[in-house]
Design brief:
80% helix, 0% strand, elongated
């Protein structure tokens, strides 16, 4: 991030200490120190006060940070896509290994289950990382994910977003039950066809 170094540069050019700057923009010296060390980011009001005090635009203050944030968003989105597709593929391969090992390759139930569950677990781990990234960026719905991928502002106040955030445990339980039902149906038909 470049904002911290920008604040420090403008402050020292004007001969201000961190205490002086803090007094002029109504924050503590520790806050200014945190900004300059890139530990925290100024709020909008503080950015406006800094831009007036330093006689620069807000865009000039945060320009490098905006580019860095866009790049970070693109990297996280790309990581989410790769992990989602990879995780889903590995989960399907795990299921196929279990079914194929038990029915086609005659590995037996226990070895097929062990191999299938190990591969399935790896895929599930990859999908868990995707969920962690979504939670880190507070992205819940598909619409929010699309906005996040484009670097656009995320509308978290629409009906679907509010509903998804209101009952996250219920949503997780329903998705788990739906996945279990699909798995049960596929297992039943697989057993009827190959068993």
């Amino acid at each position: 991030m470049e904002l911290g170094s920008q604040i420090k540069r403008h402050r020292t050019e004007r001969g201000l200490s961190q205490d002086d700057l803090a007094a002029k923009i109504y924050v503590s010296r520790q806050t200014v120190s945190s900004w300059e060390n890139d530990k925290t980011y100024p709020d909008v009001e503080s950015l406006l006060l800094l831009s007036v005090l330093f006689d620069v635009t807000v865009d000039e203050l945060i320009k490098g940070d905006v580019e860095a944030m866009k790049e970070a968003i693109e990297n996280d989105y790309r990581k989410m896509i790769y992990l989602a597709w990879g995780g889903t593929t590995v989960v399907v391969i795990g299921c196929a290994l279990f079914i194929g090992g038990f029915t086609f390759w005659d590995w037996g139930l226990v070895p097929s289950a062990i191999i299938g569950l190990l591969v399935w677990g790896i895929g599930l781990g990859m999908l868990t990382v995707v969920e962690h990234l979504k939670k880190q960026h507070d992205v819940v719905t598909y619409r929010e994910l699309v906005a996040f991928s484009k670097g656009e502002p995320i509308d978290r106040n629409n009906a679907k977003s509010l509903r998804a955030r209101r009952h996250p445990v219920l949503r997780g339980v329903l998705l788990t039950l739906a996945a279990a039902a699909v798995g049960a149906v596929l297992g039943y038909f697989g057993y009827q066809l190959f068993g």
